[in-house]
Amino acid sequence: MQSDLRKKLIDAFTLSGGDFLSGQRLAEIAGCSRTAVWKHMEDLRKDGFIIEAVRKKGYRILEVPEKVSGDEISLGLKTDFLGRQIHYEESVESTQKIAHRLAADGAPEGTIIVADEQTMGRGRLGRRWHSPKFSGIWLSVILRPDLPPPKAPQLTLIAAVAVVQAIEDVTGLVPQIKWPNDILIGQKKVTGILTELQAESDRINAIIIGIGMNVNQKAADFPEEIIETATSLAIEAGHDVSRAALIQSMLYRLEKLYKTYLDKGFYPIKLLWESYAISIGKKITARTLSGDFSGTALGITEDGVLMIEESDGSLRYVYSADIQLDE
Length: 327
Hints:
The chain folds into 3 domains: 4-63, Winged helix-like DNA-binding domain superfamily/Winged helix DNA-binding domain (Arc Repressor Mutant, subunit A), CATH 1.10.10.10; 70-276, BirA Bifunctional Protein, domain 2, CATH 3.30.930.10; 283-325, SH3 type barrels, CATH 2.30.30. Helices cover 32% and strands 26% of the residues. The protein contains 9 helices and 14 strands.
């Protein structure tokens, strides 16, 4: 976790808009001595920040290292509560496991857990998620909405819209959503979302949204078994992409959509989700535990359930399935 003093300094630089901040002003903001400010500036330099120091003007940050630790995410973050508490690890088994522990211990809403590598990343249905070091975004977010447990799947769809919007913001690429939780570019998967619950029978204690995004992997970085179905933003954009900028945009977009959802309900999110969906109006096959069936994807219900019209005109409501495009 970031120290409170270091977080105050980073927040001050975020609000400065690139202007110089004097050592005295930073000391007043952080509630410490100018010597302590100098020490933290040196620590930031050691961590890869490029800092300009000018006599009688003070300090300003010119460049941040390409990491996804707390400092890099905080510098420029424009949210009210998402990402204001950051738990960073260079390498973990799974950010979801840490998030479950922190949520059970009372971590505040908006806490994020981020790692530069996952050794046991996982997706839906227990599938493994390939999460190599320093190349992707491996992130979990803790939310605490006052909602009954059946509403939880809606949060997956909200997160999917936020991810698509963030990718558009930062890269200019145009992703699409494959129900319920895959983000595709050119029909190859670039992001997966896993939503898990800590709940009682009638109320949610915490929703933990895990996001795994392939950002700067090259084709050679993918295991042979997924090279035909997976891609990265760098492959599609033709250049590396700032992971910190993506996280900042993703948290900003998610917070904005989450507030809209809590204020106005799911309908505005439903319209956005359907506008990004790759399958709406297309022939698909849904592979479920009770069997496979095909039809035309019509959209999603207010509860986020996929509606499929079969050839005889009957409607199927799909709560959980793997979706395959037939055309």
